[in-house]
Structures are given as C-alpha cells and as structure tokens.
Amino acid sequence: MKIEAITLREIQMPLVHFFETSFGRTYSRRILLVTAHCEGVDGWGECVAGEDPFYSAEWTETAWPTIKHYLAPAVLGHTLTAARESAALMARVRGHRMAKTAVENALWDAEARQKQQPLWKLLGGAQREIPCGVSIGIQDSIEQLLEKIQLEVAAGYRRIKVKVKPGWDLNVLERIRARWPEIVLSCDANSAYTLDQVEHLRKFDQFNLLMIEQPLWNDDFYFHARLQRQIRTSICLDESIRSAREAAAAIETGACRIINIKVGRVGGFTEAKKVHDVCRENKIPVWCGGMLESGIGRSHNIALSTLENFRLPGDVSASKRYWKEDIIEPEVEVTPQGTIVIREEPGTGYHVREDLIEKITVRKETIRA
Ligand code: OSB
Ligand code: MG
Q1: Which phi-psi region, left, alpha or beta, contains residue 336 (left: φ > 0; alpha: ψ -120 to 50)?
Q2: Nearest residue CA, atom 7 of ligand 1?
Q3: What's the pTM value of the predicted model, to 2 decimals?
Q4: 121-341 in CATH: which number?
C-alpha cells in the first residue's frame, strides 16, 4: 500500500443541540478530515481536536499545520504492508496525538478497504453488537436535563452519563436519582475539581454511580490515586491517559478502576489497541469515549469498540443525536435495546458521502509525495 497523497480538509457541522462541559459550550464543530490516497484506494480519518484548546492542548488550528508540515511528509511515499507501521514513521513528532490519529486511522481505513476486510476484524475485534450509552451536557436548567434523560432512557441507551462541575453536581444527581433510582448512571467532571474538595466528592458516593470520570487535573493520575482511596465511587480516567504506558502507571498506582479509551487522545488505533491490552491484562474494563465525531470518527469508534475488553457501554451513540445529516450512509443507528449492530461490509461498513462533504468543506489542500 503506497501512500501517494494526503488530502486535508476542514468541514463545518452545526450540532443539533449545543454541548456543554465544565470547560465550555460548543454549538458547531470544525472538523479536520484526512483522506489517504493509496494506489486507487482512499481511506478516511477524522481529527477529533476541538474548536478550542480546552479539552487538551490540541485544537483544530494546531492539527492542520502539524499534519501538513510534519505528519503527511513523514508517511508520504512510503509503501506499507499494514497501517500500524505508520505510527513509527510519525513517532518523531511529540504529542499532537489527535493529528496523528487522523493520519494513522485514514491508513487503517485504506488498508481495510484495500484488503476488502471489515475494519473491526482488521483491528482484532470480537463483538458483533456493542452496548451504547449517552453523554448529556450541562443544560440551562435541571428540568431540561431531566427531559433529555427521559428521551435517552426511552430510546434504550444502557448508560446515562451527565456532565458535572461545581454548582451543577449533587443537586443534579439528586434529582436524577429521585426519578430513576435504577438506571446505570455516571458523571464526567472534565477536571473541574481539586483535591481540597475530597469531602464534597465523597458525597457523590450516595448516588450509586457506575463511575466518576476525570474529577481532577487533566494531566494527573498521582492525585487521582489519592482520591480513589478516599471515595467509594470508581474513578474512570479520560484526559490523563494518553498512552499504554500511562495506562499501566495509572493502574499500578490505583488511580482508576475503569479507563475511557478515545482513539484520538492516545494517537491512533495502534496505541488504542495497546491501551486496551494493558487494561485487559490488569482486569480494568474499558469503554469507548466520544468527541462529538462526525460519522467517520464515529464509525472508527464503533470498529474499535468490538475489541473484547470494551465491556462497558461507550459514548458511541446515534448520528441523529448530533447531526441533522451525517456524512456517512447509512447513518449510525442504535437499536431499541441500546446497541449498535456491527456491519459486515469491508472497511467501516459505512459509505462516505463525498458529495455532502464537498458542500460543507471550508478549506482543502492536497499534499503529495
Ligand atoms: O470528556 O468525554 C468527554 C465531548 C467533548 C469533549 C470531551 C468529552 C465529550 C463527551 C461527548 O463527553 C461524548 C460524545 O457524545 O461524543
Ligand atoms: Mg470525559
């Protein structure tokens, strides 16, 4: 598989409903897509960096020049037998994992299409149907949040996750549990608390949460370990796990009992598989996180979620929760049982709607070997 050219483009997609976390509110996505052109086969990858450097240091504007000047030149002209070989070619670049993921995953996509194999099989997946949850952002009122939860519970989703921050936490969880004492519930703080708030965080224990995600600093696991010793609720790490090595260290220190794997956060499918394996060896269940992806990133998350240790419902939900019209066909649908059925076709199993993508493209550039 010779990598002949890479097309980089930015598309803009308004969300059907704003999404708010402890670090801010998003109304519309600016998504970078990568197309790897390999001897007549095109593979697609999505960069999950946000519009602002708030979730992580990377954002839409840093990914573009990083791919253009460093990552694309590092792989262009090479002939690979497997996409996983591309990680080593890009390893010289420090960080920029979301940018690397866009390139690496486009190559996995191309490899699967070229070999006429489903991507999930190429990744080593085993599950044919995956359990899904939803992540519901901070709303203007608790009533509005309860209405949203009502809809998602009725749709069959198997886990409800709500975003929390100081001032929107115990009061919210209290109202949710009063109405739904039994649902599988978790919360995500996106680093909104500090260790001085242990007493406050201990109060989350009364709500029988499946987990609390990333309560403390985005780059920490040492102090999360201290916190985990003082609360009953399981800590799940998201932001601070950027590699298999960090996953191993976090597990060894007791910083978490669950890990959220986002392929963009760890630098691509190759590293995501390693994180998965480290967790499996240590009996730490994982689930697939989401970054408000378009159908391309979403279809990759689905393929990754078929690996055997993805044992908890992921933030991988239906296209219509995010978009009026998704850029893949068919759109991602969730069964009334709260699952996504894995497609058998080669590649991701979803067709990329290039005509629609062209219409929402705001800039585009092709880089050649
Ligand atoms: O922390 O999981 C997170 C979205 C953007 C940035 C960070 C996060 C999220 C989500 C949304 O929770 C998950 C999704 O539905 O894609
Ligand atoms: Mg999170």
Answers
A1: alpha
A2: 291
A3: 0.97
A4: 3.20.20.120
